[in-house]
Amino acid sequence: MKPFIAITLITLILHGANDLPTPYPIAKNTNYVPGLGDIMGTIQIRHAKLWFAGKMKNWELAAYELDEIKEALDDTVKYHPNFKDKPIAKMIDSNTLQPTSQIEQAIKNKNYKEFVKSFDKLSDACTSCHQSSGYGFISIKRPTHSLISNQKF
Ligand code: HEC
C-alpha cells in the first residue's frame, strides 16, 4: 500500500469522514431562526397550493397543505411571539384559529362549497392581521392561476 493511501485510511479510521475538509462550507450554526418574512413566504406558497388542491378536490393534498400552513403559523408563534412591539402570537390565534378549523372541517367532509367559503375567510384573516401589524399593503386573495407548474393538483 502506498504511504499516502495508508495515512488517508488511518486518518479516516481515527477521525471519521466528517473531519475531512469539504469543498463547500458547512453551516455549523444550529441556532438558525427563520425570519418572519421568510416563514410568511412559505405560508404564501402553501396558501396557493391549498387553493389548487381544493379546487381539484384533491382532499388528501389539501389536508397536507393546510397542515403545513398550521405548522408555519406555529413556528411564527414560537420564533416571533412579539414582532416590532406587536403581540404576533396572540394575533395569530385570534385571526387564524377559526378559519383554519373551518377549512379542516370542509376538507374532512369533502365539501367544496364550504372549502371555498372558509378559504376566503382565511385569506381575509391573513390580510386583516397584516393591516393590524402595519403591513396592510400585503393583501392576500384567492390565486387565479398556479405559479407552480411542476406539481400535479
Ligand atoms: C400575526 C399576524 C399575521 C398573520 C395571521 C399572517 N401574517 Fe403574513 N405577515 C405578517 C407580518 C408582521 C409580516 C411582515 C414580516 C416581515 O416583513 O418580516 C407578514 C408578511 C407576509 C408576506 C410577505 C412576505 C414576502 O416575502 O413578500 C406574505 C406573502 C404573507 N405575510 C402571507 C400571509 C398569508 C398567506 C397568511 C395567511 C395564511 C398570513 N400571511 C398570515 C403577519 C401576519
Please specify the SSE layout and strand pairing.
Layout: H1 3-15, H2 36-55, H3 59-79, H4 88-108, H5 112-132
What does this structure look like?
Helices cover 63% and strands 0% of the residues. It is an all-alpha fold. It has a domain at 36-132: Four Helix Bundle (Hemerythrin (Met), subunit A), CATH 1.20.120. The N and C termini lie far apart (57 Å). Heme C binds at residues 35-37, 40-41, 43-44, 47, 69, 83, 88, 91-92, 95-96, 122, 126, 129-130, 133, 135, 138, 140.
Key phrases:
153 residues, mainly alpha, Four Helix Bundle (Hemerythrin (Met), subunit A), 5 helices, 63% helix, 0% strand, binds heme C
Uncertain segments: none
Present as ligands are: heme C
Radius of gyration: 22 Å
Helix content, binned percent: 55-70%
Give the helices and strands as they follow along the chain: HHHHH
What's the CATH first level of the domain at 36-132?
A: Mainly Alpha
